[in-house]
Amino acid sequence: MKYVRQLASHGALGPLAPRWNCQDGEGFHPMRTALVHDTDMTTQPWRPYPDQVRYKPHPHRELENPWFEYAQRRARAGARKSRERLDRA
Fold first, then answer.
1. How many domains does the chain have?
2. Can you give the pTM of this predicted structure?
């Protein structure tokens, strides 16, 4: 909490602009959105717990491929995580 108080005292906390807070693809725009939060575990592109979670299609399927493409680029670029670990991340 000390860290949060320090951030607040310097004016570093506040509401996020919508482009930085796109939750589950709601309001997504390819030229404006900077960050998509996959908050609903049942629709996240990765599926780390198939025996425990009943997954369903993401409501914005067009956002799934970019996530996997980025993960594959990172793996090819020598990221520390192997493909097997990416599937479980």
1. 1
2. 0.58
